[in-house]
Design brief:
alpha+beta; NADH Oxidase; four-stranded antiparallel sheet; 4 strands; binds flavin mononucleotide
């Protein structure tokens, strides 16, 4: 049998189920280097189109750099805030949308989507698969971090060109994601956006179709 033992399977499903986007409650303690490298090695094991492995990781601990990124977040967030009105604008102002300064470590993932690694296999038809591959690496990291008790929050309210410039990322590289990371005491049982009433989770049957897109799957057993 190629399957894992039931205990091992439970661990995999548990990490998937209990992974959370974390923006608050970070311990200021630095992540031990060995742990950080274990997490990044998990990211580096992700699938990638043509085995191109286009992800590049910039690990940021410097307070000075994080402060610059935090300024970029604040500018972007105040712009985003203006796009909402009434109750939603009020709710927006109460959300914690990043932990750039409170988490001890930040990570920027960029994609070298012009790399010749992989000999363009799969990218003639779908060049965007380079970016998708980098996102697969991020998901590996997110799940491994959960299993290690490390919270990870994705910060996308940023002017990515400004962040690239602060981090000296070459212009040809594509910005994929910016993250705050650190140990946390606990992980919430549900997404924070669900808890505060910003959005609700869809049911599996809401996103499931049968055979063709226009045919719903139907109700699932509870
Ligand atoms: C591509 C991507 C970008 C995100 N950007 C932000 C962000 O800028 N700020 C934030 O607070 N959460 C961000 N999130 C986190 C989502 O809000 C969160 O994943 C979602 O509400 C579900 O919660 P969960 O990850 O805890 O299950 C992002 C998530 C993804 C996948």
């Amino acid at each position: 049998m190629a399957s894992y033992s039931s205990e091992e399977r439970a661990g995999v499903y548990r990490a998937i189920r209990e992974r959370r986007d974390v923006r608050s409650g970070f311990s200021p303690d630095a992540l031990p280097q060995e742990l950080l490298l274990r997490l990044l090695a998990s990211a580096h094991q992700a699938p990638s189109v043509g085995l191109m492995q286009p992800w590049r990781f910039v690990v940021i601990q410097s307070r000075a750099i994080r402060e610059k990124v935090f300024d970029i977040f604040q500018d972007a967030s105040s712009q985003e805030h203006k796009t909402y009105a009434g109750e939603r604008a009020e709710l927006y102002s109460r959300l914690t949308l990043q932990g750039i300064l409170t988490a001890p470590l930040n990570l920027c993932v960029v994609c070298d989507d012009e790399s010749s690694q992989g000999h363009s296999l799969g990218r003639h038809t779908m060049p965007e698969t380079a970016l998708y591959s980098a996102v697969c690496a991020i998901q590996n990291l997110w799940l491994a971090a959960r299993a290690e008790g490390v919270g990870l929050g994705w910060v996308s309210i940023l002017d990515t060109e400004r962040v690239k410039s602060v981090l000296n990322v070459p212009p040809a590289m594509k910005f994929v994601g910016y993250f705050c990371m650190g140990f946390v005491e606990s992980f919430a049982a549900e997404p924070e956006l669900e808890r505060v009433g910003w959005e609700r989770r869809l049911r599996l049957e809401d996103v499931l179709r049968s055979e063709t897109f226009d045919q719903p799957w139907g109700a699932l057993q509870p």
